[in-house]
Design goal:
The chain is of the alpha+beta class and 98 residues long. The chain is built from three helices and two strands, in the order ααββα.
Length: 98
Amino acid sequence: MSDNRTARIWALVAAQAASRGASPSVTDVCAAAVGALAVSGAGLTAVTRAGSAHVMDVTDDVSERLAELQLTLGEARGPTRAPRAGRCWCPISPPGTS
């Protein structure tokens, strides 16, 4: 992901957190996605290297049902994974941190 795109995403997440008066969280990631994209809901699922998955946050009931269905069907790793060095395509920490 380009640094510019990463910075734009983190700006959206930070703005969402600031609107709550809190530090950024997975709740802000999901809310920022809904605000920035033409979608009605979003969810974030964490997947371990061993393949275990856990729904971290959702914005609404439909997103929760979809996330749980993905887990049930074993599809939680689907489009969230990229072949690039086996890493997630999305940043999991703010720029400048490891």
